[in-house]
């Protein structure tokens, strides 16, 4: 892999702990994999913390901080109805939440500094080939060069030690100067990039209650709400909803140990729960998905149905 080669040339393994291990393709798993509870319409109702998520996407990020991987989970819920009261143009709001899962043996204490960057501004602009939709790397969604350039840019810009604003400064330095190899993504801009420190101590993350639903594939993992984005939609059409719920969000995990930073880019998207959504279910009249629709539209229609059920 080009990227691993470049990294090992820049940072000989003997000098730097290799914080991430790379696999060919990261698998994405959803509610079917973790057995989300469902309502009477077989729509997932995964209550974690203060959210009730209706769709999940979960992926592993392997690090050498622990023998077990970290996990990232993206989850969607329709926001409470009163959330649109101050937004007269909005017909509904969706919350898109990001959770970090950590093995029980692992803590983000003050010896490891970290930062997560969510490239939300391009999530509606990138796609992956249909046959890879539940197993793709960011290189499928962006390009191999763009991913490796962005990762290298982050690793050389990250300086976390003793700097409480380091994560937002890293975000600013990346958004100010996207690598030329990423120009095709969105005309050389990232749009909105959200930064969240992953460090312990004062900026400790909010652990969520998983007693009703486990939203990570890691056994006994702790789950932390790292970011929550509210999207206001002006209508409830498939098009409007699918732009948000079918988006792919590149998530950059940057970890620093002994003054050296390593970054990993993971692309997150929800995975549809197909187990119990059969055609004899009373789907709302969104048009019946059939061979004339692309599978993406089929997925969107199922998901839109799922969201409409809970109104
Ligand atoms: C699907 O149905 C089975 C049996 O009816 C149930 O155990 C399971 O939780 C359901 N899963 C989903 C995702 O609805
Ligand atoms: C849930 O809690 C988070 C963090 O405390 C907050 O940002 C979010 O608005 C809450 N969501 C709802 C729907 O109450
Ligand atoms: C993550 O890795 C664990 C094994 O460590 C595996 O059981 C789990 O299914 C993986 N999760 C995903 C989303 O690939
Ligand atoms: C790091 O945490 C340990 C244990 O919580 C504490 O003893 C130590 O003083 C901390 N170091 C710094 C630099 O904050
Ligand atoms: C990115 O996606 C948004 C939403 O679909 C669209 O309005 C915008 O034109 C796209 N930008 C580019 C450069 O493709
Ligand atoms: C955490 O940081 C905030 C803002 O920098 C500060 O106001 C607060 O006192 C700190 N809390 C602790 C426990 O250090
Ligand atoms: C697909 O559905 C549309 C509208 O519901 C219908 O007009 C069309 O004939 C269907 N196509 C097939 C191949 O069943």
Task: Describe this protein with a few key phrases.
single chain; 311 residues; alpha+beta; five-stranded antiparallel beta sheet; 8 helices; 11 strands; disordered N terminus; binds 2-acetamido-2-deoxy-beta-D-glucopyranose; signal
Q: How does the SSE layout of this entry go?
A:
Layout: H1 2-10, H2 31-34, E1 46-48, E2 51-53, E3 55-61, E4 70-78, E5 92-102, E6 113-118, H3 138-141, H4 144-157, H5 166-176, H6 183-186, E7 194-197, E8 206-207, E9 222-233, H7 238-245, E10 249-257, E11 260-268, H8 295-309
Antiparallel strand pairs: 1-2, 3-4, 4-5, 5-9, 6-7, 6-10, 8-9, 10-11
Bound molecules: 2-acetamido-2-deoxy-beta-D-glucopyranose (7 copies).
The site of one 2-acetamido-2-deoxy-beta-D-glucopyranose has 5 residues, from loops.
């Amino acid at each position: 892999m080009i990227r691993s080669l470049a990294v090992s040339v820049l940072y000989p393994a003997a000098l730097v702990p290799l914080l991430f291990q790379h696999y060919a393709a990261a698998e994405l798993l959803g509610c079917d994999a973790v057995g989300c509870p469902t309502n009477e319409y077989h729509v997932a109702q995964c209550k974690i913390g203060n959210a009730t998520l209706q769709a999940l996407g979960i992926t592993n990020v392997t690090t050498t901080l622990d023998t077990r991987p970290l996990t990232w989970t993206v989850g969607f819920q329709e926001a409470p109805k009163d959330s649109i009261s101050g937004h007269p143009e909005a017909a509904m709001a969706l919350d898109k939440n990001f959770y970090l899962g950590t093995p029980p043996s692992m803590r983000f204490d003050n010896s490891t500094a970290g930062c997560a960057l969510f490239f939300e501004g391009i999530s509606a602009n990138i796609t992956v080939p249909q046959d890879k939709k539940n197993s793709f790397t960011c290189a499928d969604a962006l390009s191999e060069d763009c991913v490796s350039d962005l990762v290298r840019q982050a690793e050389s810009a990250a300086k976390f030690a003793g700097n409480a604003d380091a994560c937002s400064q890293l975000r600013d330095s990346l958004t100010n100067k996207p690598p030329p190899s990423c120009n095709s993504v969105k005309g050389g801009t990232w749009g909105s990039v959200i930064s969240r420190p992953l460090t312990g101590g004062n900026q400790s993350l909010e652990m969520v209650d998983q007693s009703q639903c486990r939203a990570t594939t890691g056994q006994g993992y702790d789950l932390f709400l790292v970011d929550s984005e509210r999207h206001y939609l002006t209508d409830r059409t498939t098009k409007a909803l699918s732009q948000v719920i079918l988006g792919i969000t590149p998530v950059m995990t940057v970890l620093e140990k002994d003054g050296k930073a390593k970054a990993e880019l993971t692309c997150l998207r929800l995975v549809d729960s197909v187990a119990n959504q059969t055609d004899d279910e009373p789907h709302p009249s969104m048009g019946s998905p059939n061979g004339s629709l692309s599978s993406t539209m089929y997925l969107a229609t199922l998901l839109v149905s799922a969201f409409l059920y809970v109104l």
